[in-house]
Amino acid sequence: MTAAIPSDTTTPASMRAAVLTAPGIENLHVLDMPVPQPRPGWVRLKVMAFGLNRSEYHSVTGQAGGMSYPRVLGIEASGVVDLDPEGRLAPGTQAVTMMGGMGRAFDGGYAQYVVVPREQVITFHSGLPWEVIGSVPETLQTAYGSLTTGLNLQPGQSLLVRGGTSALGLATAALALDMGCTVYATSRRDAGLELLSSRGVMALRDDGAVAQQVRRHAPAGVDAVLELVGVPTLRDSLQAAAVHGTVCFTGMLSDSWTIKDFYPLDWIPNGVRLTTYSGQASDLPEAELQRVLDRIETGALDFLPVHTYPLEDVVQAQRDMAAGAHTGKLVGLPWA
Questions:
Q1: If pLDDT is split at 50, 70 and 90, which confidence band does 66 have?
Q2: Percentage of the chain modeled with pLDDT above 70
Q3: Backbone phi, psi, residue 297, to 5°
Q4: CATH C-level class of 14-137+281-333
């Protein structure tokens, strides 16, 4: 089913949304609530799909800062413009939105409608199915930002992705391969290694000493390392980088947030750069979103496996995400 523009232009008075009333999965409920009204400078989107992210798991488990309750979860959404009171964005325009406080400071994308600041809306045109479009926005924003701002990766260079079978890991590897880079990526499981290999990646089993494996293939080390597991593997990841190489700390799949007794001269090898990346909607150029959607649509880019859930099953989706039950991106469909 392609991403058709909804033909019904009548907005109902109420909608279904997944609301977190307090920390804990038992406090996440799909409820009826009024359709939100946009304040000045904001627009309302009809949500056709929303991606599930590790960030929302942190919200559910009480690890995320900036939360207030009750709160509709969801740091991203894909759909069409439903209402722009100032008339800058026409109704029916395909659009995505992400970050900026969604799902924490104000209600997010786990709903049939969402209101967001106009400046964090990115428009596009695509005939892809909504579930595929819904897998792209936040994952692409983070992958693109990590490769450009975080790593300054250049065509033909080498990249190690630590946490390669995560949605972000798979997306980043796909973008780097599309640039003509040599990509190494890690997994702890046989199935993950097979998936990585099938996507053109040099798959490495994460046994805790990945740097040694990397240097068997690239004795001088790799040009860039994307750290998605986090603190437990960072020290080893730094050892995989070449002199003047860069390690970008973007993810925390391990849920370890701080480094105890961090001694930079001991952790960071001579000449290796350590940086981070965490971006917003404004960090994803509209042209890059359109380019990636176009390449997915033509089959030139194998971005992500997608697993879908109706909104009513969002609690199970959260449980599956926490358990790592699926590889790829989990996507909610509010109108399924």
A1: confident
A2: 98
A3: -65, -35
A4: alpha beta
Instruction: Decide: 155 and 176 in contact? Cβ < 8 Å.
Output: no
User: pTM to 2 decimals?
Assistant: 0.94
Could you give the CA distance from residue 194 to residue 192 in angstroms, rounded to a whole number? 5
Tens digit of pLDDT for each residue in 196-248? Answer: 999 999 999 999 999 999 999 999 999 999 999 999 999 999 999 999 999 99
Give the Cα separation of 77 and 100 in Å (integer): 12
Tokens 């001269």 map to which residue? 265
DSSP states of 1-13 as a string?
A: ---PPPS--PPPS
Cβ atoms of residues 94 and 82 within 8 Å: no
Closest CA to 54 of 203, 195, 175, 167: 167
Question: In this structure, which topology does domain 151-276 adopt according to CATH?
Answer: Rossmann fold (3.40.50)
Q: Are 336 and 71 in contact (CB under 8 A)?
A: no
What is the chain's mean pLDDT, rounded?
95
Radius of gyration of the chain (CA): 20
Q: Answer for the pair 331, 131: CB distance below 8 angstroms, yes or no.
A: yes
Residue 161 is given by DSSP the state E
Q: At how many degrees (to 10) do helices 210-217 and 231-239 cross?
A: 30
Phi, psi of 7 (to 5 degrees): -85, -20
169 HSE (CA, 13 A, CB side): 30
Quick: pLDDT tens for 25-49: 999 999 999 999 999 999 999 999 9
For residue 199, the model assigns a pLDDT of 97
pLDDT category of residue 3 using cuts at 50, 70 and 90: confident
Cα dihedral sign, 16-20-21-27 = positive
Where are the domain boundaries for CATH 3.90.180.10 in the chain?
A: 14-137+281-333
The phi-psi region of residue 196 (left if phi > 0; otherwise alpha if psi is between -120 and 50; otherwise beta) is alpha
What SS3 class is residue 131?
helix
CATH 3.40.50.720 segments of the chain = 151-276
Residue listed under structure tokens 């929303």: 50
Of 131, 17, 38, 34, the closest CA to residue 91 belongs to 38
